[in-house]
From TrEMBL:
<feature type="binding site">
    <location>
        <position position="69"/>
    </location>
    <ligand>
        <name>L-glutamine</name>
    </ligand>
</feature>
<keyword id="KW-0547">Nucleotide-binding</keyword>
<dbReference type="InterPro" id="IPR022861">
    <property type="entry name" value="Gln_tRNA_ligase_bac"/>
</dbReference>
<protein>
    <recommendedName>
        <fullName>Glutamine--tRNA ligase</fullName>
        <ecNumber>6.1.1.18</ecNumber>
    </recommendedName>
</protein>
<dbReference type="InterPro" id="IPR014729">
    <property type="entry name" value="Rossmann-like_a/b/a_fold"/>
</dbReference>
<dbReference type="GO" id="GO:0004819">
    <property type="term" value="F:glutamine-tRNA ligase activity"/>
</dbReference>
<keyword id="KW-0648">Protein biosynthesis</keyword>
<dbReference type="InterPro" id="IPR011035">
    <property type="entry name" value="Ribosomal_bL25/Gln-tRNA_synth"/>
</dbReference>
<dbReference type="InterPro" id="IPR020058">
    <property type="entry name" value="Glu/Gln-tRNA-synth_Ib_cat-dom"/>
</dbReference>
<dbReference type="InterPro" id="IPR000924">
    <property type="entry name" value="Glu/Gln-tRNA-synth"/>
</dbReference>
<keyword id="KW-0030">Aminoacyl-tRNA synthetase</keyword>
<feature type="short sequence motif" description="'HIGH' region">
    <location>
        <begin position="36"/>
        <end position="46"/>
    </location>
</feature>
<dbReference type="GO" id="GO:0006424">
    <property type="term" value="P:glutamyl-tRNA aminoacylation"/>
</dbReference>
<dbReference type="GO" id="GO:0005524">
    <property type="term" value="F:ATP binding"/>
</dbReference>
<feature type="binding site">
    <location>
        <begin position="262"/>
        <end position="263"/>
    </location>
    <ligand>
        <name>ATP</name>
    </ligand>
</feature>
<dbReference type="InterPro" id="IPR020059">
    <property type="entry name" value="Glu/Gln-tRNA-synth_Ib_codon-bd"/>
</dbReference>
<feature type="domain" description="Glutamyl/glutaminyl-tRNA synthetase class Ib catalytic">
    <location>
        <begin position="29"/>
        <end position="338"/>
    </location>
</feature>
Length: 557
């Protein structure tokens, strides 16, 4: 996989901008915007758009606004707006200006009056259902509404009365007067305004009339002096409407809409509607559940903003829709965490090891160092004492071939510590192993025993010094690569997407873990401290990603 960490790779959008700059279009200015609708949390797909819009602005010394596309009050909330601002900042970007489509409600209304005066818009009394029927199909032209030739005066009067609240919701709509026979259905007199008595979080009850996306978006872009309006491919067929509105009206400028392929990531979904359903039906624990592809979820899982930015750079920007493998994202996450996360030891399924020849009340602080490139991330003093805990599966009574770890009568090295030998296995009445009795070799600290080959190295913690912890092992949310293709995406939820391990033990130093600090737990994976759920002395860690790709083709579930 090609990497290019410093220089953003070129793409067709940058080529268009370079060309525009050469021709001194827009007076050499570059202005973009990221226009989320505040009806849910941002997801990894939005990250692609954020990195593109803010990245281009930064690269060309231009501007990038964060604009809330808040024209659909019933579905929008302050919580969503706050989360969006938080997530954009977290990803590492700062907007030039914070705007809202609702800032322009008055101007949008005036522009609508202008269209009516130009004979380019009319008030229609057809119901939503009738409008659908009149619209025609891909093969048949649409049919004109009886109201299409209403006089300009009457249209002006009705539209003003729509605003004044004289009509019921749905009684009238304002439509653009374009072409009912257009091969592009979006151009068959699309709705511009509808009556909706809904409380708006910013404009309160001032309006009972709300503009449609295709109408408000292009004008908002023009009012903000956006030069390049970047959006996803499904808006390609809306571009003629975008241009029509701006051509008909006398707006400050006419931004260029450019479409790119939306991010589709395997084993997850990036539709806010479906993500919302997962949250409201409690298939996950909220928008920031670490299994969610939301930025809040990825963050809580321990994914770094840098890993997401690298991912967006790596997948590039094109006009071809394609599915990106989850392993690409995981690769970026591992790269960053491998380089930058401190090492620690955690035992997931503890097995007690008593070292019979070790002094009863002694504690040694062993200097452990296991990040050769960045010693400061690996170096620490780890307490060692008579009773240590190891992973249950690092011991085998009946070892499979090539088993290099501890066996009865065999030796193994405790990472950064001594070589121990297992002398006896203690079992309960049912035959379950409850502890191992071992001995240690004082001469083996930091060097290999002479004449004996000890191949295995296992991790451990001191029973007395380690802290109890809950480790949450997260896995993919879906069992199939393209859950969107299923009749019901809920049918392919992965029932094993979360395994909660209680009774784990972690290095004592982790008791002071700071919120969101990330670690590589040796041999087990990358984990992030969950300060929110770590209450009453319980330490909770979320697994960000395994150390290696365990989902390589053929090994899935
Ligand atoms: P969703 O389908 O999740 O509801 P949306 O397009 O309705 O997405 P918006 O809040 O309108 O969500 O999106 C804000 C911006 O993010 C838009 O410019 C949109 O094109 C872009 N965006 C949304 N999803 C993706 C994606 N999967 N890949 C790239 N860009 C995306
Ligand atoms: Mg949208």
């Amino acid at each position: 996989m090609p990497t290019n960490d410093t220089q953003p790779s070129s793409n067709f959008i940058r080529q268009i901008i370079n060309q525009d700059l050469e021709e001194n279009k827009n007076n050499g200015k570059v202005a973009t915007r990221f226009p989320p609708e505040p009806n849910g949390y941002l997801h990894i797909g939005h990250a692609k758009s954020i990195c593109l819009n803010f990245g281009i602005a930064a690269e060309y010394n231009g501007a990038c606004n964060l604009r809330f596309d808040d024209t659909n009050p019933e579905k929008e909330s302050v919580e969503y707006m706050e989360s969006i601002k938080r997530d954009v900042h977290w990803l590492g970007f700062e907007w030039t200006e914070l705007r809202h489509a609702s800032d322009y409600f008055e101007q949008l209304y005036d522009y609508a009056l202008q269209l009516i005066r130009q004979g380019k818009a009319y008030v229609d009394s057809l119901s939503a259902e009738q409008i659908r029927q009149y619209r025609g199909t891909l093969t048949e032209p649409g049919k004109a509404s009886p109201d299409r030739n209403r006089s300009i005066e009457e249209n002006l009067d009705l539209f003003k009365r729509m605003r004044n609240g004289e009509f019921a919701d749905g009684q009238y709509v304002l439509r653009a007067k374009i072409d009912m026979a257009s091969p592009n259905i979006n151009m068959r007199d699309p709705a511009l305004y509808r009556i909706r008595r809904a409380h708006h979080q910013r404009t309160g009850n001032d309006w009972c009339l709300y503009p449609m996306y295709d109408y408000s978006h292009c004008i908002s872009d023009a009012l903000e002096g956006i030069t390049h309006s970047l959006c996803t491919l499904e808006f390609e067929d809306h571009r003629p409407l975008y241009d029509w509105v701006l051509d008909e009206l006398d707006t400050p400028c006419h931004p260029q809409q450019i479409e790119f392929a939306r991010l589709q990531l395997e084993y997850t979904i990036v539709s806010k509607r479906k993500l919302n359903q997962l949250v409201t039906e409690k298939h996950v624990n909220g928008w920031d559940d670490p299994r969610m592809p939301t930025l809040a979820g990825l963050r809580r899982a321990g994914v770094t903003p840098k890993a997401i930015r690298d991912f967006c750079e790596r997948i590039g920007v094109t006009k071809q829709n394609s599915w990106i493998e989850m392993s690409v994202l995981e690769y970026c996450i591992r790269e960053d965490l491998n380089d930058n996360s401190p090492r620690a030891m955690a035992v997931l399924h503890p097995l007690r090891v008593v070292i019979d020849n070790y002094p009863e009340d002694q504690t040694e602080y062993l200097e452990i160092s296991n990040h050769p490139q960045r010693p400061e991330l690996g170096k620490r003093a780890v307490p060692f004492a008579k009773v240590v805990l190891i992973e249950q599966d690092d011991f085998a009574e009946m070892p499979p071939p090539k088993f290099k770890r501890l066996i009865t009568g065999g030796e193994v090295r405790l990472r950064g510590s001594y070589v121990i030998k297992c002398n006896e296995v203690i079992k309960d009445a049912d035959g379950n192993i409850i502890e191992l009795r071992c001995s240690y070799d004082l001469d083996t600290l930091g060097r290999n025993p002479e004449g004996r080959k000890v191949k295995g190295v296992i991790h451990w913690v001191s029973e007395q010094h380690s802290k109890p912890a809950e480790l949450r092992l997260y896995d993919r949310l879906f069992t199939v690569p393209n859950p969107d293709n299923e009749e019901n995406f809920l049918d392919v939820l992965n029932p094993d997407s979360l395994e909660v391990l209680t009774g784990c033990r972690v290095e004592a130093s982790l008791a002071d873990a700071r919120p969101e600090s990330r670690y590589q737990f040796e041999r087990t994976g990358y984990f992030c401290f969950d300060a929110i759920d770590s209450v009453d002395g319980k330490l909770v860690f979320n697994r960000t990603v395994t150390l290696r790709d365990t989902w390589e083709k053929g090994t899935a579930l």
